[in-house]
């Protein structure tokens, strides 16, 4: 049993949005879709750090990795677990504020475990605005979902000018999950 995760789940089941942490196969599939070597990475909703571990194993640099976790106890847990990685206790709805004075477009990769299907549409749009503002024009968003559908609807993806592709289906996870990667076709950027 992963105690920090279970306690966070009891505190706020909707915010956690899963009954167990990401399994190793899913974490590896996420890290592999991100191809993190040499990239500036923002991980959102890292929880207990399963995907963080996979990113580091896949070549992510600790100096270029930033973790954004809303649950204060999980954020403290991550700080203790990854002392040389920047951990921010904050909300993905306000990424620009929590990262200040860092400029926009300052990450190559956003990798997210946010339970987007549990999030109200208005909050989802706000989170996506924040994510795509923080991403470089050639950057990517990697997100998993437990749904058969894409984690970002095609119409919402269109609104942000990004295209989604399914990069992996992970059956050895509880529940099985699908990994999606979003990027700007030909460098299109919704901010222009
Ligand atoms: C499905 S869990 C993450 C599981 C994680 N991959 C692991 O293995 O432990 C989702 C995480 O997103 C965090 N979260 C949810 N909403 C958030 C928000 N608006 N901003 C930042 N983190 C958020 C939750 O606190 C939780 O830690």
UniProtKB/TrEMBL annotation:
SMART domains: rADc. InterPro entries: Methyltransf_25, rRNA_Ade_Mease_Trfase_CS, rRNA_Ade_methylase_Trfase_N, SAM-dependent_MTases_sf. Residues 26-164 form the Ribosomal RNA adenine methylase transferase N-terminal domain. PROSITE patterns: RRNA_A_DIMETH. GO terms for molecular function: methyltransferase activity. Pfam families: Methyltransf_25. One of its GO terms (biological process) is methylation. CDD domains: AdoMet_MTases. The keyword S-adenosyl-L-methionine applies. SUPFAM superfamilies: S-adenosyl-L-methionine-dependent methyltransferases. Keywords: Methyltransferase, S-adenosyl-L-methionine, Transferase. This is Methyltransferase domain-containing protein. It comes from Sneathiella sedimenti.
